[in-house]
From TrEMBL:
Organism: candidate division WWE3 bacterium RIFCSPLOWO2_01_FULL_41_9
Example of a GO cellular component annotation carried by this entry: excinuclease repair complex
Helicase ATP-binding domain: residues covered: 1-141
Upper lineage: Bacteria, Katanobacteria
Domain of life, per lineage: Bacteria
Domain UVR: 629-664
Protein name per Swiss-Prot or TrEMBL: UvrABC system protein B
Amino acid sequence: ENKKHQVLLGVTGSGKTFAVANVVRNINKPTLVISHNKTLAAQLYQEFRDFFPNNAVEYFVSYYDYYQPESYIPATDTYIEKDANINEQIDKLRLSATTSLMTRKDVIVVSSVSCIYNLGSPAEYSKMAIEMKKGMKLRMVDLLKRLSQIYYERSEFDFKRGTYRVRGDIVDVYPAYMDYAVRLEVFDDTLTGVSYFDPVSGIPVDRSILPEIRRGSHTMSVAQDEQDYLEHKMIEGGFVEIYPAKHYIAAEERRVSAIEQIKTDLAIQLKILRDAGKHIEAYRLEQRTNYDLEMIQELGYCKGIENYSRYFDGRKPGDPPYTLMDFFPEDYLLVIDESHITVPQIRGMFNGDRSRKETLVEYGFRLPSAIDNRPLNFEEFSRKMGRTMYTSATPSEWEVSMASGNVVELLIRPTGIIDPKVTIHPSENQVPDLLKRIEKRVANGQRVLVTTLTKRMSEELSSYLIEKGIKVTYLHSDIETLERTAILDDLRRGNYDVLVGINLLREGLDLPEVSLVAILDADKEGFLRSDTSLIQTMGRAARHILGEVIMYADSVTGSMQRAIDEVDRRREIQIKYNEEHGIVPEQIVKPLREKLIDEVIEEVLEGQGPGKTRLIELDYRQLPPTELKKEMKKLTEMMRYEAEMMNFEEAAKLRDKIREIKSNLNN
């Protein structure tokens, strides 16, 4: 019907992702799928790769394993420098996403809300790409200069992503967004050879092993071997196109004008600060900005260059930043998964970022341009939306109104499984009762999810169940994103039988082995026990033929009643449909996929409680190297926790202690 907004109300296990995949195939446009957390984004990424094996299915989330933003606390006169650990694999995937959008039409990007954050100009990113073809005139000195301009570093011994090396007439380049490296042979100022090889083994990639990759159409046909079109083009045609190793980039002429604009704005801001009697702040700003300018002039880059992105992008004060959404054409398709959570999350990103930046500007740590290094506000996001589909089992009124009430319900599951039966049990003796139910399910090879209200409750319940011989672990926000995915895989494999959580056991988790969901303190009204949250939590048991929900409560709240009524409504429709069509429910058997990102998952370490002071004050010089490494892991976990809680002073202390330990290890 060519409407711009559409709501898909789909119950758990009804095939929402498959339905979306068919829409993507039929509309045949570049597609952006936004999920509200990295774990679900990874799951969607894997599913879309299965549906579209020949397409460029990309993954775009925050690349920080640990992130402590730059901030200043006036009350204690404490400045905390930006500190972060970047995940190299996710950085590669992010660059791969933008490169695919520049070179292909059959692109599906699965993203978190990172897609609304400043990324740099797509026009500059594309303009700075180096295009080369076998036989063209090319001087070696010009090639090396161009590679340096797009932030490739020369490294003769440590050949890794984003580097190049020179050996006589041969230049090897390891593109920052690929798994292979390209070899360029230059002789007599001519590009005489273009080939591709494995950077680890050095073995050339044989052209014959590369399949024909169809460009510009979505297909759900049988998978061919997955290869990027750009890689294929490089080998087949003797043509190579190397994109920048970083997203923030500008041509030389833009860089010169940006430096002049920065100097002008610096003079204006210094006058404002001095007129207000803020001489220390003015001195601080002048020293810092001049240092950054010197780095930009010499290297083309400086630490925190994103705070000057407005100048390099040619934006005016207050203009929206360039984001991943700007890499898409105007007629792209946008899918907002679990929209009842994702839309409010997008709304909330702008204000929290702005208040921190304004403090930095007020006290002379940054120019006002830093405020424009920000996420989109919701109005700006709305203007950049393409044709949009909202998918949720519990869409909010806003999504329904945007779709003018045009809601498609997907209540029938292909397997015939109906929504789980809901039982209410008194809170008294809830844990012993829960243990009996768990033992019964585990004996039948089934899995159990338990939701609590606090992190402490989840940890204490896990400890109790472990004492009783249950294979259990907990899942909450302190656990790293990739580790969460590993825990969910372990649950499916049977390494754990029970998973205890707070707010992460709701939307989208695809766990067909789970037959029981237990909700503790279901009658405690609040965000975690709203009707929407309860319906979503109940849905985790809807993929099992024997699915059941037990709610521990002493009274029935309004939220509980609305949730139960909605589940009963759906059950009635499902049972009637099964009877009319002679459908017998079948258990879902879903194979385990390979992990999105291979990594060694470190054990979850304790250390966020009373032991923290002991760890900080411990004399590490007295410990052997093996113990030093253990203590460093504990401190790292605590540092991440403090940063997430916005306790930046504590996080900085822990960071300094970690650096001290590393120094001792090196010595």
